[in-house]
């Protein structure tokens, strides 16, 4: 039995997830990124940060212009009252979903390969949800009144929210999602902050990491409660992540607009969210892996597994496209049928066909192992996927609204420069936050990777093997 | 809590023996040593490790976490809060006909009831976990062990606490050494 475990051929099929010999070496590899002297950070980091921070500055300018002038500076107008703002909102929320999927669902399925990527994926979730929140917040026109969205007693309004509307469900879903993701992320971070506290000799850093790590000392009693808390957070995040995009899709599905009023939306949106989110994790990890030399921790095995998930979710999304068309024909509803023909061959044909190309055709490359293991292919597909998924939301929103029931109300959406720069600005904000995170906090969960290494190093006894697999 | 206990907690108390600590380089050795020490009759044991070590709870007698029981009550509270709020607003305080929908119906409470269930459970498990662990905490005597800083890196520490009825510093040091622990020390704090 033990001969099987050491069979080199089997080792080849299942290459080790962590390429490191001992625990200390792992701590070194991950901590040194965080611990380096700030002034000695490579120039290319500061230049990149300067660019992304400038783009974030443009976001600030655009939002200030919007608030001081009014939401008329965006291109939304009748009949397309929802346009880029909600497209961007759904796009960013969707990106966030991969983080929770990696940290929670893969945890429940005991997928050990998640440990190298979950921290950065969770951080990505937080930043993406922040970017998402900007759009509905500013679309209200009066963001300083945002507390009206929550059921807190207010004397200036004397009104309650309409709990019969999916828009208020969305407020609860998104704010819960952000809060739970933050708690989950911080819980995972505490043991690693304790590691940094124990390693640093700088008095100020000792104070900061000491305070943030809450006095963590890795006691067996602590770990016992900690693992339970982590399990519970994972178990509640799993239905949460499915609910968030389902509720986002209710914004559309509960309306009576052809092209929106469909029961396929919740699963279709969730699959699309995971699809785009994994692509975004892939883009960021490929860059981080290359610039920070993390090849030993983020191996080809991790990347290939992620590509498989992109293939699966991309195929689910393609299936949803096909089902929508089939139902448009099969239902016999002329409005539904018109909407779908208009979607593919109407004024927005270019957006629809970009979406089909990026989401339906390109990910099919991943049926081939050589494609799943080619870094350039991965990088390009991860970007086309996100372009495709942005177009998907735009196509769903714009093509359904552009042709109203009354032909006299038909219209076409033209984004203004404010629309474009605001969206570009959120990309800047997202990248800025991610760069700061990657430099100042451990990007890889040190304690979790060590757990995987411990299993890898463990010499299985005959009894343990028999207990696990009595063959 | 008396003043002395409080002083001990923040590290200002009088020094007294906290326990005997020793280090292992391998989690399997830690579990093995923990099991043997417990078989010798010691009950107040602790282990410190950079990651959760499989099997250590059984070996040194850490009881299963009770966090789940705390969380389940809070999740029920979250669900009840949402339904009560929506019912009170819709059917009592602010009766308004919107789209001919009923003033209250369970069907449209589902999304928010679910979200608040999750939110309350998340806070309960997050705050509850720190509370049960007695954290945040400014000071702990085990940090006085010379290799304590490596318990978050690559060492696995085993402690016999002074509160143990069988505790005798000299004997404990010898026993930990005989089980293969290195750098065995009597820790004060």
Short description:
The complex is a heterodimer of chains A (471) and B (189). Chain A has 471 residues and is mostly helical.
Task: Write the topology of this structure.
The complex is a heterodimer of chains A (471) and B (189).
Chain A (H helix, E strand, L loop, with lengths): L1 H4 L2 H6 L9 H13 L7 H27 L14 H25 L9 H22 L26 H34 L3 H10 L7 H34 L11 H27 L8 H31 L3 H12 L3 H13 L7 H4 L2 H28 L14 H24 L5 H12 L4 H7 L3
Chain B lengths: L2 H7 L7 E8 L2 H13 L5 E4 L7 H5 L6 H27 L16 H24 L22 E6 L7 H10 L3 E7 L1
Antiparallel strand pairs in B: 1-3, 1-4, 2-3
Helix pairs in contact in B: 4-5
Describe the protein.
The complex is a heterodimer of chains A (471) and B (189). Chain A is mainly α. Chain A has helices at 2-5, 8-13, 23-35, 43-69, 84-108, 118-139, 166-199, 203-212, 220-253, 265-291, 300-330, 334-345, 349-361, 369-372, 375-402, 417-440, 446-457, 462-468. Chain A has a single domain, classed as Formate dehydrogenase/DMSO reductase domain (Formate dehydrogenase/DMSO reductase fold), CATH 1.20.1630.10. Chain A contains 18 helices and no strands. The termini of chain A are close together. Chain B is an alpha+beta fold. In chain B, helix 4 (67-93) runs antiparallel to helix 5. Classes of the chains: A mainly alpha (471), B alpha+beta (189). The interface between A and B is large, with 63 and 65 residues.
